[in-house]
Give the backbone structure.
Amino acid sequence: MIKIIPRIPKRNRLDAKRQQQAVDRGLDDAAAGALIDFALTSATWEHDPVYTVKAQKDGRLVGTKDEVWLMLNKGTRAHDIYPRNARMLRFPGGPYSPKTRPGFIGSQAGGASGAIIFRRFVHHPGTKPRGWSTIIAKKWRSRVAQFTQRQINKELS
């Protein structure tokens, strides 16, 4: 003869509030990963952009308001550069090696390595868009379900 005894959990595992908290923890985990990718894009820069994570009703918003980062992310058109508070522009000459490149989450050593040059103006050829925000969003949107499911599974165990 077999005696069957039901095992009733001491707590309600299907508590909606705790499930929502598990989903929020999963979203936070994914946002933390995206934040790391954002930081990698400017790791070798001389200034450090500030990256933020904002909780929203249906997700997390990760980004920055740094003008240089945004300019490189979207790219620039060809344009002339004139001095603002001086008669001449002063900058190191070429060859120039960019610290970032389109389609790549990361940053490397780079910059100008030539002698100092003085000019009344220069024609900048423009900057190709790096597309970091699109690449990072695509990467982490595909992973957010895994992070969320992992937290829900922890809650249920």
